[in-house]
Amino acid sequence: MAGAGLPVVAYNNPVDTRVDLVPELLARLHGEGHIHGVKGFSGDVRRACRIAELAPESDLLTGADDVLLELAVAGAKGWVAGYPNALPRASAELYRAAVAGDLTAALPPYRQLHPLLRWDSRVEFVQAIKLPMDVVGRYGGGRGPPGGPAQLHRPRVDHRHRPVPPGPHRPLPGGIRPLDVL
Q: What pLDDT score does 72 carry?
């Protein structure tokens, strides 16, 4: 695909794939024109800094939601995520503030959403994203094999600062309420 002029983004998810695309390999692939960037899902912010040092022209995209702020500060140019499907406004506001380096604006929603964002880095991440989507009325599809129905520990999220709009929205088990749905 890179030879056809289409930008290719490598996906590094060493936990789930058991294949680790180390920064040196990613920099080499970028330098040889095989990839344009990388979606990092290792959760290790030091890797982002190392990739930026070795291949400063490559595009780093954060894939692990629970390190969005840290990777944005480290220079991530995008966010490939699941939770914006359920919480688009809150996610977009957080992302914009994070990549702008506006920690005053980014820290409160990041701290508020972080218990939820951590679900994305668990084995059940697909179910963890589909469940909130279902709760806010954005059908995410079935949660069948291999993961099965969502049987997740539900973290507590402080929802006092972002009221749920009126409508057929119910809280997640454990008292979590969707924060923003528009």
A: 92
What is this structure's pTM? 0.72
Domain 2-124 in CATH 3.20.20.70? The answer is yes
Residue numbers of the chain with a pLDDT score lower than 70 = 1-2, 123-124, 143-182
- Give the domain ranges of the chain: 2-124
Q: Decide: residue 108, CB within 10 A, 0-12 exposed, 13-18 middle, 19+ buried.
A: middle
Does the annotation count 130 as an active-site position?
Answer: no
Residues sharing a CB contact under 8 Å with residue 59, sequence separation 6 or more, in sequence order = 9, 36, 37, 38, 77, 78
Q: Are 179 and 157 in contact (CB under 8 A)?
A: yes
Q: Is 93 exposed, middle or buried (0-12, 13-18, 19+ CB in 10 A)?
A: middle
Torsion of Cα atoms, 16 then 99 then 104 then 84, to 10°: -50
> At CA 149, angle to CA 147 and CA 153, rounded to 5?
95
pLDDT digits (tens, 9 = 90+) for 82-127: 888 888 899 999 999 999 999 999 999 999 888 888 877 776 677 7
Element containing residue 31 per DSSP (H, E) = helix 23-31
> What is the DSSP code string of 86-140?
TSHHHHHHHHHHHHTT-HHHHHHHHHHHHHHHGGGGSTTHHHHHHHHHHHTT---
